[in-house]
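Q: I have 99 residues here and want to know how they pack in 3D. Can you give me a structure?
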Amino acid sequence: MKALLLPLALCLPLAAHASSTLRCESGLVSLGDSSAKVFNQCGEPVSQDFIGFKEVGDEYGFRNEVKVEEWTYGPRNGMYYFLKFEGGRLSKISSKRGN
């Protein structure tokens, strides 16, 4: 049983890393990249949706509201990619197989 769990445990960091980058036609985009860089690398998204605002705090305790958007790219090889931006920075990359 331990022999089966060890290879699986070693693969988990690879799966987490795969969702932190997206390959576009002009290169890679990663979490933390600006929306301008993503637009330059990946081009015009299929849709840009305004989600709302999120309250965030900094290390000094100041609170601020930032804009939250979701951009959709695809389909690429049957996959749609959803990029979430908070305050103009890429915060999440997810994907879903299209119908």
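Q: Anything worth noting?
A: Confidence is low (pLDDT under 50) at residues 12-18. Strands lie at 21-24, 27-30, 47-57, 63-76, 79-86, 89-97.
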